[in-house]
Specification:
By secondary structure, the protein is mostly beta strands. It has a single domain, classed as Galactose-binding domain-like (Jelly Rolls, Sandwich). Helix content is 8%, strand content 39%. The protein is built from one helix and nine strands. The strands form two sheets. Strands 1, 3, 4, 5, 6, 7 and 9 form a seven-stranded antiparallel beta sheet that branches. It has a two-stranded antiparallel ribbon with strand order 2-8. Strand 4 and strand 5 form a beta hairpin. The longest helix has 14 residues.
């Protein structure tokens, strides 16, 4: 299945839909969290200096089943502020669940990379929890994308039927 970002192009932390948030933000409003979701790799979210680990998140209006995510670095910036270790986490309703964890990752100027979530769970809120960066004491992320499907009951029933039928089982209602 091809990667398709299901987060709309954001124009603020709450528009056009969903809510973008972060652990901290540098720059008096210039490096806002929504910049990582505006589709432009030349704008970015930046945490406060000295604030690593840190996180960047998005809350959907309804639960989604995220199967992959992508991160991109700026072509014109210092890669020292870019993550080298992180966790993609989903909010279960009572705790953050680790969906994917990476360490010792390297990005190059302008590089966009996709990562697979091997065991997705339906969540409304997702966050990239950054554990370390190349160098420096703050995080910068120009682009974060999430790929997946609605986690509404009809979609989950279709997924369950497909899995059960692939395993040769019987679906009971």
């Amino acid at each position: 299945m091809a990667f398709s970002n299901i987060i709309p192009v954001m124009t603020s932390n709450t528009a056009p839909s969903g809510t973008v948030s972060a652990g901290s933000t540098e720059g008096g409003g210039y490096y806002m969290p929504w910049n990582a979701f505006d589709g432009n790799v030349y704008t970015f979210w930046s945490s406060l200096g000295g604030d690593v680990p840190n996180w960047l998140g998005y809350e959907f209006p309804a639960a989604k089943l995220i199967s992959a995510y992508a991160i991109a670095d700026r072509a014109d910036a210092n890669v020292g502020r870019f993550p080298t270790a992180w966790r993609l986490e989903g909010w279960s309703g009572s705790e953050w669940v680790i969906l994917d964890a990476r360490s010792n990752e390297t990005f190059y100027y302008g590089q966009r990379r996709e990562f697979t979530v091997t065991s997705p769970i339906p969540c409304k809120s997702y966050r990239l929890y950054v554990l370390s960066v190349n160098s420096g004491s703050w995080v910068q992320i120009p682009l974060l994308e999430l790929s997946g499907v609605d986690a509404s009951p009809p979609v989950l029933r279709r997924i369950r039927r497909s899995v059960v039928s692939c395993l040769g089982g019987i679906v009971r209602r």
